Amino acid sequence: MNKTMSLEISLEALIAGDRAEFARLVDAYSSPIYRLGLRMLGTPQDAEDVLQNTFINVLTHLSTFEGRSSLSTWLYRIAANEALMLIRKKKPEVNMDEAQAGENDEDLLPTQFMDWSALPEDELLSGEGKKTLDSAIETLPESMRIVFLLRDVEGLSIKETADALGLTETNIKTRLLRARMFLREQLSAYYGERITREE
Amino acid sequence: MTDHAHTNCEELLFSLSAYIDGELNPELCQELEKHLAGCDNCRIVLNTTRRTIDLVHAPIEKLDVPEDVRERLFKRLNLDDYLSRKP
Q1: Interchain proximity B47–A117, CB inside 8 Å
Q2: All domains of chain A, ordered by start, with CATH?
Q3: Per the CB < 8 Å rule, is B17 touching A180?
Q4: In a domain, B73, yes or no
Q5: B32 belongs to a structural domain
Q6: Number of domains comprising chain B
Q7: Above 0.95 for ipTM, yes or no?
Q8: Which domain holds residue B42?
Q9: Does B54 map to a domain?
Q10: Helix axes A71-90 and A158-165, enclosed angle (nearest 10)
Q11: Distance of CA A122 to the CA centre of its chain
């Protein structure tokens, strides 16, 4: 998805100052960047700040973009930095380093073994189900959440996620595994209880 | 994950995410699939992890930028002339 989008945008035209092309770029990436801001910060106002600051930065630095990563990855890098900077400003107590992402392997071990995977999607995402998913994502530590959002929600590859966040691919894989296991555990507790109740 | 004879559930758990992404090397992939064939709990963990990822891809999760937010963004970037063009 991201590669296709970036291929449709002409970097040459952008650097030459083509306003119509820049408007196309803004439209192509506004929604994923807004969603990222909303999921990271939690309020529409903060998401809008992330969105505006991202594109102001893009506009300011476009002439220095060297093309070492794709345009899409570069945009996500700026957006992720904006979101993380705003989090640091609003919640200075949040620690974004690896330690906060949890290094204890025991935290990873599953405790829920009810198989809810065959439940239909509309049932899984109706009412309380969606709330459970949303609040589970909100509960993820920021350092894991941003990896999960870029990789699993917005569909960046492991390499693109690593490039966007300035982390190694191994680090991304570790954080992603922890995030996925954490969310699975939360959803399993909720759906497992529902299945048991209905039986 | 203790109600069966296998002892390598925990070890293979670390490969689960890479397996889902299709990024596991063939040898480990084979080992994991062999294990999954005989381990109900690990199979459940795999299926429910896959389903968890599917759910965040559901259309309901794909919120678009609200129109008023788009409008303010375009104005801030001096792109007012292009506002009427549909994305």
Answers
A1: yes
A2: 2-90 (1.10.1740.10), 100-198 (1.10.10.10)
A3: yes
A4: no
A5: yes
A6: 1
A7: no
A8: 9-62
A9: yes
A10: 50
A11: 23
Of B14, B52, B74, the CB nearest to A183: B52
pLDDT band at A103 (very low <50, low <70, confident <90, very high): low
Scan for tokens 């969105």, then name that residue.
Answer: A51
CB A46 within 8 A of CB A86: yes
Q: Do B65 and A55 touch (CB under 8 A)?
A: no
Tokens matching residue B7: 């002892």
Question: By CA distance, what is A155's nearest residue in B?
Answer: B57
> For a pLDDT cut of 70, what percent of chain A falls above it?
89
- Does the residue B76 lie in any domain? no
**Pick from B1, B44, B70: CB nearest A115:** B44
Contacts of B10 in chain A (CB under 8 A): 105, 109
Tens place of pLDDT per residue across chain B (87 aa): 444 545 678 888 889 999 999 989 999 999 999 999 999 999 999 999 999 999 987 765 578 999 999 999 999 999 999 998 766
Using alpha carbons only, what angle is made at residue A155 by residues A182 and A33, rounded to the nearest 5 degrees? 95
d(CA A55, CA A29): 10
